Amino acid sequence: MAAYRAVMGVLRVSTSVVLLALAMTALLEARALVAAEPPASVVVAGTAGVSMDQAVKMAEQRFKARVVRAEAQHDGVRTIYVLKMLNEAGQVWTVRVDAANGVIL
Q1: Which of 22, 49, 92, 94 has its CA at a distance of 20 to 30 angstroms from the CA of residue 4?
Q2: Measured in whole angstroms, how far is the alpha carbon of residue 89 from the centre of its chain?
Q3: Is 104 inside a domain boundary?
Q4: What span, in angstroms and rounded, lies between the C-alpha atoms of 2 and 53?
Q5: pLDDT value of position 42
Q6: Is 84 left (phi over 0), alpha (psi -120 to 50) or beta?
Q7: Helix, strand or coil, per DSSP, at residue 32
Q8: Does residue 49 share a domain with residue 22?
């Protein structure tokens, strides 16, 4: 019985050390992520002159149709909003909007 208690005590200590090491590793990784420079696509998206919501509203008003799908695509340093449009006649088409200036491409 004494040997069992000794083994269990070692296991508890070992488990605590492993959990502490995992927590420290996660903390160091989190600090590294915060300190790291954001990727270029994040910087471009953050400096866009037109938000995705604004691009959707512009396209819906211009084409008298509804945006059924919207996504941002990054072409090098440029961000393009790709909008899938649907009109009342059931026609579907794609509109591309430059996020920097709102120009429909």
Answers
A1: 22
A2: 34
A3: no
A4: 68
A5: 41
A6: beta
A7: helix
A8: no
Q: What is the pLDDT of residue 39?
A: 46
Residue 67's domain spans which residues?
Answer: 40-98
Same domain, 45 and 75: yes
pTM above 0.70, yes or no: no
Give yes or no: residues 52 and 93 share one domain: yes
Co-location of 19 and 63 in the same domain: no
Cα 74 to Cα 36, 44, 51, 68, 105, distances in angstroms: 20, 9, 14, 20, 14
Q: Which two tokens stand for residue 37?
A: 């420079």
Per-residue pLDDT of the chain (105 residues; tens, 9 = 90+): 777 677 667 667 666 655 555 556 655 565 555 444 444 444 444 454 999 999 999 999 999 999 999 999 998 889 999 999 999 999 999 999 999 999 998
DSSP state of 65: S
Tokens of 4: 């069992």
Clarify whether residues 66 and 16 are in a common domain.
Answer: no
